[in-house]
């Protein structure tokens, strides 16, 4: 590993270092069956062949009904804080989080959009090109479950096959029985949308880091694989060109 790259990768706090692949919340229903980094990704990272991944920024977008807990989830993950008072997001906010994954620097831009209808057109202009779409609903509010599919369809329409997650927020507000009942319903919805499901609480912090690490690891794995495969294709094209020049 080059000295500069190693320094960049090490220049993150210990809670932004990912060395092992996190598992899904519900392995059976997740569309993402990965439980480890792709062998090509591991090799590329250990041989310092991750191309521009360390320089590129991947984009995650959070969407969902008003006051379901999007900003609280972002604040718990990024700053380890929780505010019980509601402050509506105006338009869109964003955070940038730096990670070191398999000793490789990786940056995720997190776009936290407003759930209020009047900001919908502003927020939707930020969906484009998202690598990850996270639909958040409130586990204690039936109404927010009904809009999961619509949010997922709107937010993924202008992206190229992003990773998809459905997240039930405010887990601390529901009993264990109610949590199971909600999960039973929403696991089906998530599965039909081709998304992975998580239940979290920004108030207690339950599952917030596990979810975030899973999301970031899947994004990183896909980004490095794209990079490795496109550089592989490029060298194959070069070899093809050399061969055809040789033949002609
Ligand atoms: N008990 C509990 N309350 C939560 C949790 N997450 C969010 N809240 C509360 O729910 C309210 C709304 O949270 P926000 O995170 O601002 O919701 P939002 O989805 O960002 O709302 P918009 O920006 O308007 O779309 C706030 O009063 C939070 O304190 C949680 O995990 N548990
Ligand atoms: Mg908000």
UniProtKB/TrEMBL annotation:
Chain ranges passing through the membrane: none
Key words of the record: GTP-binding, Nucleotide-binding
GTP-binding found in the keyword field: yes
GTP-binding is among the record's keywords: yes
NCBIfam families, A to Z: small_GTP
Protein name: RAB34-like protein
Taxonomic source organism: Mya arenaria (Soft-shell clam)
